[in-house]
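Fold it.
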Amino acid sequence: MSTAETSRFVRLRVELVVEIDDAEAVTGAALARIAEETDMPDDERAHAEGAVTEDTAEALAYLVDPFDLVGDVPGVELAQASWSSEEIDYDPDSPDWDLDQDDVEEDEDEEAAG
C-alpha cells in the first residue's frame, strides 16, 4: 500500500492500571489544577471541585491529559481524545488482567480472516 493510500490517522490505545497510595494528594493536585484555571465559569468550577472531591478516580482523570502523551512528539497533532477512569478490583495474578490479551485476540482474528 503506498503512502497516498494509507490513512494519516492512527488510533493509539493505552490502558493503565495505577495504584493510588495517597488519595488526598491526588485530590489536592486536582483541586489545585482547577484553581489554576482562571477562565473557568463558577458553576463549572463548583461542579469540577465536587466531582474530584467525591471520587479519587475522577480526580485522577482530571489530572491526566492525553495531549501530554503526544504533545511533544514531532509530526503528530492530537485530532481527538477521550478517556475515563474508574475504581476497580485488581489482581495482577489473575489471567483476566493479561495486558496482551487484546493483542492475542486481534492476531487470531487476523489469521482466521487471512
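The radius of gyration is 19 Å.
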